[in-house]
Amino acid sequence: MSTAAMLPAASGSDFFLKIKRYMGKKFIQIAIFLFGIQSMAQLWAEGAVDVSGILSSEASVPFWMQANTNYRYGNFSNLAPLVEGRLGWATSDSAEIAIGASTYYRDDVPDEFQARELYLEFSNKWLHAVLGSQVPSQPYQGLSTTRKNFLWSGNARPIPGLLLEAQNPLRITNGFAIDWGIGHYQLSDDRYVADAMIHYKRIALLFRFAERHQVKGQLQHMAQWGGTSPEFGPLPNDFEAFVDVFFASRGADASIPGEAVNALGNHLGTFLLDYTYTSAQSVWNFYHEHPFEDGSGFRWSNFPDGVWGLVYQPLQSSWLDTILYEYVDTSDQSGNDSGAGFDGYFGNNVYRSGWAHEGQVIGLPFIGYDRNLIVNDINSPVTNNRVRVHHLGVSGSVGAIQWLLKTSYNVNLGTYRQPFTPTQKNLYNYAQATYHTHSFGSFRLGVGADVQNIGAEVFGVQAGYRYSF
Prior knowledge:
Elements (H helix, E strand, L loop, with lengths): L14 H22 L5 E15 L6 H4 L15 E9 L5 E10 L7 E11 L3 E7 L27 E6 L3 E4 L2 E11 L10 E13 L3 E13 L2 E2 L3 E2 L4 H8 L19 E13 L3 E11 L2 H4 L7 E9 L5 E10 L26 E2 L2 E2 L6 E2 L12 E3 L2 E12 L2 E14 L4 E18 L5 E11 L5 E11 L1
Antiparallel strand pairs: 1-2, 1-25, 2-3, 3-4, 4-5, 5-6, 6-8, 7-8, 8-9, 9-10, 10-13, 11-12, 13-14, 14-15, 15-16, 16-21, 17-18, 19-20, 21-22, 22-23, 23-24, 24-25
């Protein structure tokens, strides 16, 4: 868990504030310009209306009805209509430009009516760029606990920013390619450090051995930085500070009393090792995502923490699409030694609201977070970051009906400083079936059941309808 070195606020014009204001003013102008060039491109449009509701035996809803839904539901929501649309232009040089937006209503959350997405997107053969907020993709039909991203699982509402990444991995040789991405995001919710920013980047190497074996190694780095702290005032946010954040280096010799300075900002990251084997009958995928938040985690002192996953996909089955198993462990944290341990995933001493957006954890949804806590200079809303999870997900289809099952056995240990006594044990179950018609949209029905050793059992029924046009 890194802490920020305190530097005086940058004088003069703020480099990144200018960029954010400029992008905001130009967004509509760009859209109007794109409409003007539609005569040179192929114009297309699509949209959808989605209505969904939950009946629950308790005030809260089952875990897998609200987790990793991009805040489609809150913990106590029962109704969630959504409207979305997308307008695009396919140009003659294999490039595409699109504008997308979606909005939803959820009851029993602080801001019940919100925009979910608003973005301008560009892609061609080698580049994919997104300006604004966009829902991330969900591999394996959303069966994974993290969508192979421990830090950004899709649990929170999409965060606005600018993302530049490879459209496809850049092929160097027939068996070697490079993937990359870099982004800048703005946290605009009500938080302890107001107007904090997120820096994001990744680099991945892909090796293909013959036709059946592929190995991917990826380093992902994120950091919270900038903003205004009620305790330390304006935090460094100029271009020089960005360089320090980019390289995870110290900005100065100054330190916060009682804390060792690791780097400017609150740094988080993951290593991903991903192996895929493809046979004539099936595809197998094994992956391990290892998290780190300081030097000890970067040196793998917190091993075996992370996500261990195995996926089986038959290529010739008429009813089964995917079987996914994941084991998640965040209980080591480099030990409870104050020298190198207490990694304290998703918490931070300066950015005390932690790795969350609007009270929703951005990453692994099993991390416990108290959104009702009034954060001050001595407490933390992260109530539980030592967890162990066995998770199974299965999906398939029978005719026009798609189905999926998810079940998770979750053990919560609390934190090293405030362990849970007794340990919390939960069994989260969810099943869903979706019937697709030719002309009248799709109908879905889901049932969820949470069984726990502390608190009441929770049973829920979810019904939804979606019409796309």
